[in-house]
Records
---
Amino acid sequence: MTSVDEPARPGGRIRDAARTQAEILDVATQEFARAGYDGARVDEIAARTRTTKRMIYYYFGGKEQLFTAVLERAYTVIREAEQELDVEHLDPVAAIRRLAELTFDHHEQHPDFIRLVSIENIHGAEHIAASEKLGRIGSPALDVIGRILASGQESGLFTADVDAVDLHAMISSFCFFRVANRHTFGALFGRDLVAAEQREHYRTMLGDMVIAYLTADRAAD
Amino acid sequence: MTSVDEPARPGGRIRDAARTQAEILDVATQEFARAGYDGARVDEIAARTRTTKRMIYYYFGGKEQLFTAVLERAYTVIREAEQELDVEHLDPVAAIRRLAELTFDHHEQHPDFIRLVSIENIHGAEHIAASEKLGRIGSPALDVIGRILASGQESGLFTADVDAVDLHAMISSFCFFRVANRHTFGALFGRDLVAAEQREHYRTMLGDMVIAYLTADRAAD
DNA sequence: TAGCTAACGTACTGGTTCGTACATTAGCTT
DNA sequence: AAGCTAATGTACGAACCAGTACGTTAGCTA
């Protein structure tokens, strides 16, 4: 993140293409997350940077491409975080629980990203489809899940018939819903899913759920 | 749903306030779900009804109130469906599984509703907050879950430390994510969560997950 | 059947918003 | 230090879009 609050150099404008672009992306991320794609205002983004609207069009081409660039950077940040995952030294149960907790923490810490993903889904993921970068970005987390799952299934510890993508969907569902639907859920059921006091409760609940599912004694069904 | 395709009566316009309002709500639901709140066009809604934009303002007051009315009707439909729930004659395990499956089916059958909820969350649930109707609508499903849960916990069958709201969140998470994030998930991981062939797989997965969580032998942890 | 009012239609406006034409300058290169 | 170009700023236009002023009529009521 580039700070937008640095005092403007008194000696006149400074030229720094990289910084200007990063600053536009920072502010655009906030604005798109705040108001949705159509609700976001290009003029508002420009006003909150140290540069002008002209620069947004100069560097990104238009509102649509700016949103795509925002998504690309947001997903890149996630993928880089996933590459730091270090759970494969644990036994499969502990590794999966730890992975679920890291996903939980990550979603909680990046509500803007969650909002961007919701917005992109409203628009049928057309920006992801239009992005070459996002098409081939892959997911390190999926590889990690795959290896843990294989190990757990091989040893007979994990009985569930799921692959890495399914398990990733299961873990993400809970983490995503909790943040994304916080407002309607709170308004309708009077419970703030993201309240600090409830945090440990839901974190444990997620881990228990995933482990119970994976290790359930299916012969008893 | 009111059909919009009936041929216009040749003898001139017909006056029917209820039908006009219902038709506006039908089309508005589609348009808001399609494009989001800011992306939706009042002119487009009007064009796709047999009436004019003037009538939208006459009956609903404005775009904002129209969206609120759309949400109110959508939630009312859900709540009415929930009142049809008839699972309490089953044993707790079967009852919870059935309830999860009904939620699963309902989400799948109402993608527009899912989109409206996503949109409302982007806007901080401000329309729900502004609606008297939605504030006191409650949730029959929560009552049902609460009673089944109590029965299962009393008999020692359910070991998990959850209440009805938590369990509802868990079930909804999976069902909601699968429909709401279908597009980004498909684009990034190459799997369509709502594909017909996968339907039974995910339906079973959800039931297994919830039951495994509720009945897990926690002493073994 | 005269009259009344809820229901409806047409045409327009004023503000907003994306995008651009045109002008300028920082700072590197030779 | 002259010149060149990437980077930047200003001012404006054209389309769009929510909302409204004003006029009309269906069909019930007395």
Note: The two ends of chain A are 51 Å apart (CA to CA).
---
Amino acid sequence: MRELVKIFKALADSNRIRIIKMLEIRPLCVCEITDVLQLSASTVSKHLSILREAGFISDEKVGKWVNYSLSSGQLNHYVGSLLPLLKNWLPDEALILSDRAKVQVVDRNKVCGIG
Amino acid sequence: MRELVKIFKALADSNRIRIIKMLEIRPLCVCEITDVLQLSASTVSKHLSILREAGFISDEKVGKWVNYSLSSGQLNHYVGSLLPLLKNWLPDEALILSDRAKVQVVDRNKVCGIG
DNA sequence: TCCTTATTTCGCCAAATGACGAAATGATAA
DNA sequence: TTATCATTTCGTCATTTGGCGAAATAAGGA
């Protein structure tokens, strides 16, 4: 029960849903997400830790970057059911489409450390 | 997006999940739910309004009681996907089983106005 | 080694949340 | 009509949440 509540809490924020929908495109580092969402790095880092604790995403340190990607969903039963639903949801939401367009072109070597 | 966040917020509380799992058994009035959850009537009423606003439940006034029941799920796309998932989840959770056992025997004419 | 860079953690603040009791509402029963 | 009962609304309070900037970490490059 506590786990299920944690999972729904993780989804109960629009910025975290935006992150999940961005990660459906490809793995991203913190500063790429920061660039798209226009939030501070510390705020994005917090959102990512909430999503990670809930099992939606996993992180992998590569050099000075941490790449975040969607979980396979095989580890957590609830996540395995919810991520496919989310994948089909919000297909026409303007904000999500614009986020994803930015994800397509963002370059971590250019956005990180500048804006 | 706003609607989806509202829906996840509605599920992001253990007492509201308990209510949904109780309503899987049968429709209930506020005071029956109050009796099982051991919360104040005003708190339960608030939880029910959040679930109703999100589309999970509907209410029907019958005499002096208001019967709450699970939505068919045909009205709201998200709810229609999530309620069936919830129906399969937490099948062995002790708290849910105990709530449901109470639902089986609770009598609104006995519990309302006393406890 | 020293400096830069990406990320996380910490401390703070404003707003939202979940709880309660008291008061208001609406319907039944006397 | 008057009293009772189920429910909702209101005001309050403690806790949680989501945001920020500053400081701490950790890795890379000069």
Note: Chain B has a mean pLDDT of 95.
